[in-house]
Amino acid sequence: MGLAHGARHDALTAPLLAVEGLEQSFGGVMALAGVSFQVPAGLIYAVIGPNGAGKTTLFNALCGFYAPSAGSIRFEGSELLGLPPCRIAARGVTRTFQNLQLFFTMTVLENVMVGCHLRARTGLLAAALRLPRVRREERQLRAWAHEALELCELADRAAQPAGTLPYGLMKRVEIARALAAKPRLLLLDEPAAGLNDTETFALRDLIARIRAAGVTVLLVEHHMPLVMSVSDHLLVLDYGSVLAEGTPADIQADARVISAYLGGAVQYAV
Predict the structure, then answer these.
(1) How far apart are alpha carbons 259 and 34 in whole angstroms?
(2) 146-183 confidence digits (pLDDT tens)
(3) Domain map (residue ranges) of the chain
(4) Pairing mode, if any, of strands 29-40 and 44-48?
(5) Burial bucket for residue 265 (CB in 10 Å: 0-12, 13-18, 19+)
(6) Which are the contacts of 130, defined by CB distance < 8 A and separation ≥ 6?
(7) pTM for the full model?
């Protein structure tokens, strides 16, 4: 899995993502209550917690789907708060969703190419006229899509309609589409949901390959063996607040986390 946890933290000092005092409420219920944390570049950083802890709300705030009432979200030193989702994605932050968001009648390649649209620079008129620069750009976007398919081990499925794939491979298509936009930070929202053990082990290897390819990963996931085996650092949320933060070993030894979430002193491979 590369460098040891401590070595990664020592080598990486400037955060890629810095969240400070984030607050989000719905009808008087505080979904995020002053959440603060930092994600250094090059890590697999997991966010865990019970249902309703605020994990997906946090993701939606980071991606611009929600407008927090207070706090700061800085990515590579620039403020993201207040930007629409398309501009946040264009800056290098992309995500997947808990529920599949595929175009089932389109091919796998066409689905993944949708993720490249943020990198397109030609306008509607140029595209309609099929100018030479449009054709060059289309070739480039197709190449980026193929790179994402290769990384996700889907290259042999490129021409297949997405809706005909097994569920586990559909989840990979979503990841490939997010990667096709060439993000520097990838948010994975419960990627193991609905997967069997074999598919989950393959997902663990894929997440490690994504990090090895230079993409920092922010992971929300309930599958604790996956989280503990692939993550460098964890943030634990409970009722919208930060309960604990640390390495997988730290979190498994934290009595507060055991009581609130893990439900017992169960040790997972780290």
Answers:
(1) 22
(2) 999 999 999 999 999 999 999 999 999 999 999 999 99
(3) 1-92+183-270, 103-182
(4) unpaired
(5) exposed
(6) none
(7) 0.86
